[in-house]
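Quarterly update, task 2.4: pyridoxal-5'-phosphate-bound model.
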Amino acid sequence: MELFNVYPLFDVEPVKGEGSYVIDKNGQRYLDLYGGHAVISIGHSHPHYVTLVSAQVEKLGFYSNSIQNPMQKELARKLGEISGFPDYSLFLCNTGAEANENALKLASFKTGKSKIVSFKNSFHGRTSAAVVVTDNPKIKAPINFRNDVVFLEINDLGAVEKELATGDVAAVMIEGIQGIGGIRIPDPEFLRGIRELCTKYQSIFIIDEVQSGYGRSGKFFAFQYADVRPDLITVAKGMGNGFPIGGVLISPDFEPKFGMLGTTFGGNYLACAAGIAVLDVIKSQKLIHNAEEVGNYLIRELAKIEQIKEVRGLGLMIGLEFEGDISDLRKKLLYEKKIFTGVSGNNIIRLLPPLSLKKEQATIFIEKLRETLAELS
Ligand SMILES: Cc1ncc(COP(=O)(O)O)c(C=O)c1O
């Protein structure tokens, strides 16, 4: 059987990971400024992570959500504590799209409404409700087009109020920092404004922190720069450092009912072991602080490179916008300089490295990038 061919692939076969490096089958090391698409939070093969996940698989890998699993409670407690949302409750699932799907359902259950306000250039996933609120017609099948979603310009609070004032809106959904859309940060006043409007018009405020959360921005959640409290927060990617796990943090205003949400695999023992290890390491190695410090250094130094049109980002979630197409630049960085980077559109490089990236490794990237740009000019 062949694989269903939906991914354009680079000609690299990684077989091992160590901190901020991946190593291919020929023993070649690559500096990882992509983190497997913002997933590697604590670094590849972190010893504490390897120990917890390995020990768990030896004991018990899976049962179901119909028995007592204290690891889920431990994960929820640690997440509540480190994020500053100890009074919220946690629903565990497996992916970012699933987290958003459940958040949208909760908003609709609670308000009895179905209209959603989303934003231009947003990405929330590919499953049915998540793709409906994603601003990319190319990844929607005919069943995914609905007319009860509007895509507004980010930072246009007047447009948000106009929609909410109709009284029909179940939720406003926004990314903490737009990732796939090109590292675009909503203004703090805009987020605070949405908070007020959602309260005023009885709509649910959902912030998608699937990519920007878990310390990546230099705060646990990117929206914490705006000091707001959304009703629902979705997480995934960095949560398991590669083990599939996602979650919805749910404000105390929501009342659970048996059967309201559910999943077979969500919250399984291995996912919990991975999730607990990630939070332990983020805390003990002060990785949020590291993301802020190394991120600020990168942003400052990259802004000095004249070929870059604009540098945007917070912490270790950084976009480098160029005038023209960057595919040759990325290929050269990968194949010649041995550095993985991410992309957005055809002219934005996205940096999403492990939160444990060291300043020396950031310096290597800056030097190699300068070198490559000089070679290409
Ligand atoms: C902001 C955001 N939300 C949701 C998703 C979907 O996550 P997943 O691919 O785990 O379903 C992504 C994935 O890139 C994302 O960046």
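Highlight for this quarter: The first strand starts at residue 14 and ends at 18.
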